[in-house]
């Protein structure tokens, strides 16, 4: 009797394995969360030391127009104004998204509504391949094609906002297009059928029904593309000119947060003020990627089909 | 305006846009291949790079890229698999799950340069691993984890619940069902996800310039002891990868033939991505055929 009782009450091997599996997979998940938290902790603690250790005014940092860490201006203050990079990053991001959007939507509509056969057979594989092309390759093409072209047409060095915008436009176009295609495909088929059944032309169905239904998804795709453009480092750094001055026109050299960051980290001493301000730029990048994330979430919530 | 005429105009415009994009994309691919492939030769792939003269190759960079990819996958796959299994099989709809899902989403949207800087700060400087393959692999793992986790989770999700119910009906525990039923069924699409993410990792540079370093010390391909300094398998040596090499010679390098070398290296990268893309699908299909009776 006791033996049976014992064997029934004892934890079976299966249960032990179950517990083991459950805890080991959970540990893997928690590890990821810990990584995220520590990224924020480390970058923030480094980035904020500009303000707390080096006593630089937050507002002056964000709105100052001259970037020359290590030298002081006439008032004895450090010349660490990050505005040129912030403006540069936003300018290039917004411009490239504005150019990419009509092309991405047009191509996606063509692929899903006008010619699904060609879309699936030719365009889809090409776009998937282009999504995977490393960003340095885009930078290299920018350097060998776009920069000389800009130099040829507009004069100057050829490096600048325009070159950066073109490179980022080409880079985010496949991403935005393929996400838009996914959204358009997820619009229920009966939307199309009902629109056509009440006598709409194909364009009316696209414009008045399908694109409206897909708006949240398309917006998400655009914001996603912008987030990618904003955080892109090397491709932009290769073509933008890396001159931390406020861009006055589209063909003059400029700088972005990422370009100054990649250039500077290796040339400054850890813990020095010159190094700390770079970490602050990284913190701004981190913050902006959070903002993009929140925007995508808000769009997603608002756009849920009820 | 007449609805029919506007329909025609709109269709024409859409054709035009799609045509332009096709031209642009085809031109892009064509440009890389046309300018790069002529520089590819056995000599280019198997000779070390030269810093001051023309005629250098990409031998060490190519090896470093492949080795780093391998180590990265070795670290990131088990973690992503575990996390994916928990998220799809065990996680309940509660605060904890929501927070973790948000964290993964945030991680996937972080610019890779930020991940690289974090790696530099924590692994290279604080943990004193220096510029090394190991540091680079950890940084790439962080960069790769969210996407791989999501892809594993998606693969598991696509397995119908019928299979789980069948497992339970046979008296298997949840874990046994996952390991013996769900995981094998999801394996083809998991493998596809791994290969696709490998393509992304292979071309990543921003996360590596301050973790795996920007120099490729000479390797001795006859010495396979991982603890020797010049051994290709040594985890603690700095390792400049192909993508980093392209960036480096174009922004700081002084090779007279930087343009040719980067064109050739770009072509290698593109061809690698192409191979990853094609083989991802092919391996997935082949595995599916092997593991099931589907024809």
Structure description:
The complex is a heterodimer of chains A (306) and B (295). Chain A is mainly alpha-helical and 306 residues long. Chain A has two domains: 1-40; 84-303, MetI-like fold (Orthogonal Bundle), CATH 1.10.3720. Helices cover 76% and strands 3% of the residues of chain A. A two-stranded antiparallel ribbon of chain A has the order 1-2. In chain A, strand 1 (67-72) and strand 2 (78-80) form a beta hairpin. Chain A starts with a helix and ends with a helix. Chain B has 295 residues and is an all-alpha fold. Chain B has a single domain (40-291), classed as MetI-like fold. Chain B has ten helices and no strands. Chain B has helices at residues 3-36, 42-46, 59-90, 95-109, 112-126, 133-157, 161-169, 174-202, 242-251, 258-291. Chain B is globular. Chains A and B meet through helix 2, helix 4, helix 5, helix 6 and helix 7 of A and helix 1, helix 3, helix 4, helix 5 and helix 6 of B.
The helix-and-strand class of chain B reads: mainly alpha
Number of helices of chain B: 10
Which CATH architecture of the largest domain in chain A?
Answer: Orthogonal Bundle
Write down the overall mean pLDDT of chain B. 86
Distance between the termini of chain A: 60 Å
Tell me the name of the CATH class of chain B. Answer: Mainly Alpha
CATH homology group of the largest domain in chain A: MetI-like
Strands of the largest sheet of chain A, in order across it?
1-2
Helix amount of chain B, in percent? over 70%
Keywords (chain A): Cell membrane, Membrane, Phosphate transport, Transmembrane, Transmembrane helix, Transport
Main location (chain A): membrane
Subcellular location (chain A): Cell membrane
Function (chain A): Part of the binding-protein-dependent transport system for phosphate; probably responsible for the translocation of the substrate across the membrane.
């Amino acid at each position: 009797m006791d033996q049976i009782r014992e064997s029934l009450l004892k934890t079976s091997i299966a249960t032990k394995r179950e517990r083991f599996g459950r805890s080991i997979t959970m540990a893997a998940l928690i590890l990821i969360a810990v990584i995220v938290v520590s990224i924020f902790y480390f970058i923030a603690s480094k980035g904020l030391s500009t303000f707390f250790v080096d006593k630089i005014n937050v507002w002056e940092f964000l709105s100052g127009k001259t970037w020359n860490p290590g030298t002081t201006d006439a008032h004895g203050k450090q010349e660490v104004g990050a505005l040129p990079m912030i403006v540069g990053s936003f300018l290039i991001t917004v411009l490239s998204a504005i150019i990419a959007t009509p092309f991405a939507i047009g191509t996606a509509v063509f692929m899903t509504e006008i010619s699904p056969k060609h879309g699936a057979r030719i365009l889809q594989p090409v776009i998937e391949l282009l999504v995977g092309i490393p960003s340095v390759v885009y930078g290299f093409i920018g350097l060998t094609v776009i920069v000389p072209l800009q130099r040829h047409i507009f004069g100057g060095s050829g490096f600048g906002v325009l070159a950066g915008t073109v490179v980022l436009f080409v880079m985010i176009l496949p991403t935005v297009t393929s996400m838009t295609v996914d959204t358009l495909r997820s619009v229920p088929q009966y939307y199309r059928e009902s629109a056509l059944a009440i006598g709409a032309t194909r364009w009316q169905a696209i414009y008045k029904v399908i694109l409206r239904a897909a708006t949240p998804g398309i917006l998400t795709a655009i914001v996603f593309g912008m987030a990618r453009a904003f955080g892109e480092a090397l491709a932009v750094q290769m073509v933008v000119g890396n001159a931390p001055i406020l861009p006055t026109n589209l063909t003059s050299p400029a700088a972005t947060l990422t370009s100054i960051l990649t250039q500077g980290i290796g040339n400054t001493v850890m813990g020095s003020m010159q190094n700390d301000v770079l970490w602050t730029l990284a913190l701004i990048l981190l913050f902006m990627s959070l903002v993009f994330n929140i925007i995508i979430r808000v769009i997603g919530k608002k756009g849920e089909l009820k | 305006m007449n609805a029919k005429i506007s329909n025609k105009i709109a269709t024409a415009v859409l054709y035009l846009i799609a045509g332009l994009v096709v031209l642009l994309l085809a031109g892009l691919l064509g440009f890389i291949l046309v300018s790069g492939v002529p520089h590819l030769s056995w000599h280019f792939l198997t000779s070390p790079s030269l810093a001051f003269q023309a005629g250098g190759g990409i031998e060490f960079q190519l090896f470093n890229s492949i080795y780093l990819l391998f180590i990265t996958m070795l670290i990131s796959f088990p973690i992503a698999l575990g996390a994916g299994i928990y998220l799809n099989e065990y996680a309940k709809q509660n605060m904890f799950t929501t927070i973790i899902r948000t964290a993964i989403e945030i991680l996937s949207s972080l610019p890779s340069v930020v991940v690289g800087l974090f790696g530099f700060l924590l692994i290279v400087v604080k943990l004193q691993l220096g510029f090394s393959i190991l540091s680079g692999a950890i940084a790439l793992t962080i960069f790769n984890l969210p996407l791989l986790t999501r892809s594993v989770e998606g693969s598991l999700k696509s397995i119908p619940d019928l299979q789980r119910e069948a497992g339970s009906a046979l008296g298997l525990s949840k874990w046994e069902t996952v390991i013996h039923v769900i995981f094998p069924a999801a394996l083809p699409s998991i493998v596809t996800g791994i290969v696709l993410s490998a393509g992304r990792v292979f071309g990543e540079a921003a996360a590596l310039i301050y973790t795996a370093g920007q120099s490729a010390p000479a390797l001795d391909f006859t010495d396979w002891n991982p603890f020797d300094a010049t051994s290709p398998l040594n985890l603690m040596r700095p390792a400049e990868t192909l993508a980093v090499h392209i960036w480096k010679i174009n922004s700081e390098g002084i090779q007279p033939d930087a343009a040719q070398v980067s064109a050739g290296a770009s072509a290698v990268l593109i061809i690698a991505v192409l191979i990853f893309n094609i083989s991802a699908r092919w391996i997935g299909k082949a595995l599916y055929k092997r593991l099931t009776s589907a024809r």
